[in-house]
Specification:
By secondary structure, the chain is an alpha+beta fold. It is built from 10 helices and 18 strands. An 8-stranded antiparallel sheet has the order 2-1-4-5-6-7-8-9. The chain has a 6-stranded mixed sheet with strand order 10-15-16-3-17-18, with helices on both faces. A hairpin with a 5-residue loop joins β12 and β13. The chain is globular and about 75 Å long. This is DUF3696 domain-containing protein. It comes from Chlorobium luteolum (strain DSM 273 / BCRC 81028 / 2530) (Pelodictyon luteolum).
C-alpha cells in the first residue's frame, strides 16, 4: 500500500508537498484544481515501469495503446515559474500481510521508498538527475554527473562506489546490471528493492471518468482479461469469465455474485446475469430489477457506468491499489453514498487501497457517517480538498474526529 506521495514542481504542484495516503483516500475540489495531477504522477511511473524500453528514464507517453496519458514534453510536466529546472516524484509504501520468502526474491522488503528528480535533455525528454531507493535500513543512490555519467552511492557513504555512463538508472526505479555488479553483495539487495518497488507500482489499476457504453451482446474468448481498461471496456469480459468459467480463486469465481450484491445495495438493480443468445457463441448481460429483465444496453446509463467500478473492486488481486476518477458519474444520490460503503468494506476485506477523486458530496457525507458509527476508522481514511491559489494547487486535509466531524 502507498503510504506517502511526494511531489515538487510537478504540473500544478509547484511547491514541495507530501500527501499521506490511507486505505481509502478521497480527493475533493473544483475542476482543474490539480486533483488529477496527483494520480497522474503515479500513473506516469507505472507507464514507465511497464515500458518495453528498459533504458527509458521516464515514459512521457505517446503510445495510445499502452500508455495511460500523453504528457507531452518535459516542459508540459514542469510547473510554471518553478525555482529550478527539475521536478520530483517520490513515494513510500509497505506491503500488506506476512512475509513469504517463497513469493518473490523481494519478499523481505516490507517497507520501501522511491524518489527521483528529473531534468530535461536537449530533446525535451526527462532524464533522472538523482534517484534513490530504499528498503528497511538499506539505501542506494544514483547521481548524474558530467556527460551523462552516474555516481553510485550506498547508504551515507561520502564517496561513490564508482562512476560511469553504464550506471544510468533503468525505468526510473532500477539499477543497471553494471551498477548491480559494481555493488557486489549490496547489488543483490538493490535488485530486491527495485523489484519490490516495481511490484508496488504494478499493483496500480486505473479507471478514468469516461467509460465506454455497453454493447447489446458480446463474444467470450474463453479467457479472463488481464485488466478492464481505463475506460472499463473489458468489464463484460470479466463478468463473462466469472459466470461461464468460474475460477477456483475466491476473487475471480465470485465476481458476478459480488457485483450483483452491490448493485442491489445501491438500488440500481436486483442482480445481473450472463445469458446465452440461443445456441450461438454470443452472450448478453441481463439486468434484473423489480421483476423486469432488460439488456444492459436498455437500462439507465448509471448501471453501465458504475459496473466497471464495482467489478474492479473484486477483480484486482488482493493488496492492489485502485485509482478512480468520478466513480459516482450518472448515479443517483443514494447510490453515490453506497459507494463509500463499497470502498470501506472491500478495503477491509480484500486489503485494497482506493485513491478516489470525486465531486460527490453524498459519497463524502456517507463516509463521515461511517466514521461516526465506527464502521470505518478515522485512521483508515483520509479526506483532502484541493483548491487553486493562482497557478498553484493547494491541499487541505479535512481531518475527521471520532464522530465523523471535520476539525477546524
Amino acid at each position: 500500500m502507498f503510504d506517502l506521495l511526494r511531489l515538487k514542481h510537478f504540473k500544478a504542484w509547484r511547491q514541495s508537498i507530501s500527501i499521506e495516503l490511507k486505505p481509502l483516500t478521497v480527493f475533493l475540489g473544483t475542476n482543474s484544481s490539480g486533483k488529477s495531477s496527483i494520480f497522474q504522477a503515479l500513473l506516469l511511473l507505472k507507464q514507465t515501469v511497464v515500458s518495453p524500453d528498459r533504458t527509458v528514464h521516464l515514459n512521457l507517453g505517446g503510445n495510445e495503446v499502452s500508455d495511460y496519458f500523453n504528457f507531452g514534453h518535459f516542459d508540459d510536466v514542469m510547473s510554471r515559474n518553478a525555482s529550478s529546472n527539475r521536478f520530483d516524484i517520490g513515494f513510500e509504501f509497505h506491503k500488506n500481510g506476512n512475509v513469504d520468502r517463497q513469493e518473490s526474491p523481494a519478499a523481505w522488503v516490507q517497507n520501501g521508498a522511491f524518489s527521483a528528480s528529473y531534468g530535461k535533455t536537449s530533446l525535451k525528454a526527462a532524464v533522472v538527475q538523482e534517484m534513490s531507493i530504499s528498503g528497511e535500513d538499506v539505501l542506494f543512490r544514483l547521481v548524474r554527473r558530467d556527460r551523462g555519467a552516474y555516481s553510485a552511492f550506498v547508504g551515507q557513504e561520502p564517496q561513490p562506489r564508482g562512476k560511469s555512463r553504464l550506471y544510468a538508472p533503468q525505468r526510473s526505479i532500477a539499477l543497471s546490471p553494471e551498477a548491480v555488479s559494481l555493488l557486489g553483495v549490496d547489488g543483490k539487495k538493490a535488485e530486491d528493492i527495485s523489484l519490490a518497488i516495481r511490484r508496488q507500482i504494478e499493483s496500480i489499476t486505473y479507471l478514468g471518468p469516461l467509460r465506454r457504453k455497453p454493447e447489446r451482446d458480446y463474444v467470450w474468448n474463453g479467457t479472463m482479461p488481464g485488466d478492464i481498461g481505463i475506460d472499463g471496456s473489458r468489464v463484460v469480459d470479466v463478468l463473462l469469465s466469472s459466470a461461464l468459467a468460474p475460477a477456483k480463486d475466491e476473487g475471480k469465481g465470485a465476481i458476478i455474485e459480488s457485483v450483483s450484491h452491490w448493485l442491489n445495495r445501491m438500488g440500481v438493480a436486483d442482480s445481473i446475469e450472463v445469458r446465452q443468445l440461443g445456441r450461438s457463441t454470443r452472450y448478453e448481460i441481463v439486468v434484473h430489477r423489480d421483476g423486469v429483465d432488460a439488456n444492459l444496453r436498455d437500462v439507465g446509463i448509471g448501471v453501465s457506468q458504475v459496473l466497471p467500478v464495482v467489478t474492479l473492486a473484486f477483480f484486482v488481486p488482493k493488496g492492489s491499489t485502485i485509482i478512480l476518477e468520478e466513480p459516482e458519474i450518472h448515479l443517483h444520490p443514494l447510490a453515490q453514498a453506497v459507494l463509500s460503503e463499497l470502498f470501506v468494506e472491500v478495503s477491509q476485506q480484500r486489503q485494497i487501497q482506493f485513491l478516489v477523486e470525486t465531486h460527490s458530496e453524498h459519497l463524502f457525507r456517507r463516509l463521515q457517517t461511517m466514521v461516526a458509527r465506527q464502521v470505518a476508522r478515522e485512521n483508515d481514511c483520509r479526506l483532502y480538498f484541493v483548491e487553486r491559489k493562482g497557478a498553484d494547487a493547494e491541499l487541505v486535509h479535512l481531518e475527521l474526529d471520532g464522530y465523523g466531524r471535520i476539525g477546524h
